[in-house]
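<discrete_fold_record>
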Amino acid sequence: MSSYIDNNTDSTNTNEISIENINELKEKEKEKSQIESISLSISTILEELLIQNRKLSLYKNKIYKQSKMVFSCHKKPKISILEYINRIIKYTYLEKSSLIVSLIYLDRICQNDILLTDYNIHRLLLISIIISIKINEDKIFGNNYYAEVGGISIKEFNSIESDFVNFINYYLFVTEEEYFKYKMYLENYFLKIKK
């Protein structure tokens, strides 16, 4: 009996672990909340951009030209942009920084004469997030897994990824200044849509 008592009397260790665990849980909840606000901001921004793009006179012509590109699918996906982002978040455990960097990558591909449409937004979003994960995070999965998460074949995934990095000329480096500019924009945007 005394050995049981001796082994279980150090309550400070147990309390320290509990406090550390609580702090860790609080930190994870904070991170989760930030990821949710960033994903809502990104999805809303992209939805608004799609609405603007649909009004462009060259929209149908661009869709036709881009339809032959690997980025485009033949039917509009039924899943919303926010649901798609949340699916990717759920199965990849990405960090908020990767989500922010993915928007930077999307911006870069749009600067290379790619118009975001209902037919390419999901695929471009998937690839921009996965490339961001591969560049910025320690824990990554194989392309087979990411293709399954995104609901596309591995062949499509590999082709889209290859074309994506080619279109942005392998410009994957993001400066600290650029990162914080996008981060602030997304945080301010979230405050705006939250009202």
